[in-house]
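User: I'll paste a sequence; please echo it back and then give the predicted structure.

Assistant: Echoing your sequence first, then the prediction.
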Amino acid sequence: VKFFAQTHTYDEPWQTVTLAFFLRYPNPYATHVLSADVISRSFTPRGTLVTTRLILKKGPMPKWLPRSVVGRAESWIVEESEVDPLGKVVKCETRNVDHVRVLSVRESVELKEGGAASTIQRTEAKLVSQLGWLARRAERYGHEKFQRNLERSRAGLHLVVDLLRQSREQALAL
């Protein structure tokens, strides 16, 4: 079992980062994401917005992984999120639904207001493999890849934030 945790601060208001978070696909930093579809969306009695998305990702398999273990280099991901607009908090959980014996990845992200013009993102992940003698290697590989992908994910989110800012500025100029 491998764990990962990291905190990052965006110098942007919570509303902007939250909108960018839900609009982050597609972007040039996430070419591995083939599709992201909303499965359900509803409001709770507390006034929070709950969304479930199904995401299809692709990526190369490590050369040391026997081809017979994973037939294809695509994986389905379920993303469940809850937005609390009054508390200014987003909680999002993602998990892969296939290849879980090879590597099960459960990620949680929390976006919360860090002040008038900043947003704090807390990311945690748990990686578990059931590949017998290859389990530790798979977990280590997944952990390292997760760290690298997190940087690309942030770059993509920053790009979407910039695009939102440009769009807003163009609208104000009209």
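Residues 2-173 form a domain with the Alpha-D-Glucose-1,6-Bisphosphate; Chain A, domain 4 fold (CATH 3.30.530.20). The chain has one domain: 2-173.
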